[in-house]
Amino acid sequence: MQLSKRLCAVASLVPQGCRLADVGTDHGYVPIWLVRQGRIPSAIAMDVREGPLERAREHIRAAQLTGYIEARLSDGLSALAPGEADCVLLAGMGGPLMARILKEAEEKWDSIGVYVFQPQSDLGQFRRFLDAAGFRMTAEDMVEEDGKYYPMMRAVRGGAGYRNEREIDFLFGRGLLEGRHPVLRSLLERERTAYEEIVQKLRRQGGQEARTAELTAYLDRIKEAEGCYEM
């Protein structure tokens, strides 16, 4: 089985030897790959929809891993009992949905050691939620695949990691900025060019001062983030 670049990067953030709960597993590719690689001993592949879960079951059976991976119908983490998993993976869904899933399972947070997130939208909002809820980042990565950029992160509960502090940390990720991640730099360059063109167009048209100010403020944050690569 060959994982996409995005899923391979996500899988690499899952710690060696953990029992994984893959929420929103879809085809079940990540837990299958991790078990086959000997990275994890077992997994629970969870999805809220029966259709994708049945596809995951078929792939698990084809891989002859039914004794290692359980496919379980679950709305978020509702069907996961405390102590069943050491790591939870949430990937390929929007930041607000991930936050909702976590909020609804707050009583289980401290029974799970590690979390891996790959939000598809609202990155700043999601990072703010994690910080406010007491999650701390321990690793971040980003890949580009088919013209799209995918940020991802590993977090723990408590103090064994770092917090985002500046506005650019929430927008772009403190770990990526401090590590001067090359894929983030590529994204920043692309976004700066795009937003500069939009702002110039709005200024020529006139009459959209509020929107122009909003985009200009974001453009300033992009330039501030690019400054991290010049230190």
Largest beta-sheet characterization? 7 strands, mixed
CATH fourth-tier homologous superfamily of the largest domain: Vaccinia Virus protein VP39
Strand proportion: 15-25%
Number of helices: 9
In helices, the fraction of residues equals 40-55%
Number of strands: 7
CATH topology of the largest domain: Rossmann fold
User: What's the mean pLDDT score?
Assistant: 95
How many distinct domains?
2
Report on this model:
This protein is an alpha/beta fold and 231 residues long. It folds into 2 domains: 5-163, Rossmann fold (3-Layer(aba) Sandwich), CATH 3.40.50; 184-230. It has helices at residues 5-12, 29-36, 50-62, 95-103, 123-132, 167-172, 174-178, 182-205, 209-227, and strands at 19-23, 42-47, 69-73, 87-93, 114-119, 135-145, 148-157. It has a 7-stranded mixed beta sheet with strand order 3-2-1-4-5-7-6, with helices on both faces. It is elongated and about 65 Å long. The model has no long low-confidence stretch (mean pLDDT 95).
Structure in a nutshell:
This protein has helices at residues 5-12, 29-36, 50-62, 95-103, 123-132, 167-172, 174-178, 182-205, 209-227; strands at residues 19-23, 42-47, 69-73, 87-93, 114-119, 135-145, 148-157. By secondary structure, the protein is α/β, with parallel strands linked by helices.
Summary tags:
231 residues; alpha/beta; Rossmann fold; 2 domains; seven-stranded mixed beta sheet; 9 helices; 7 strands; elongated
Question: Could you outline the blueprint of secondary structure elements for this entry?
Answer:
Layout: H1 5-12, E1 19-23, H2 29-36, E2 42-47, H3 50-62, E3 69-73, E4 87-93, H4 95-103, E5 114-119, H5 123-132, E6 135-145, E7 148-157, H6 167-172, H7 174-178, H8 182-205, H9 209-227
Parallel strand pairs: 1-2, 1-4, 2-3, 4-5
Antiparallel strand pairs: 5-7, 6-7
Helix pairs in contact: 1-2, 4-5, 8-9
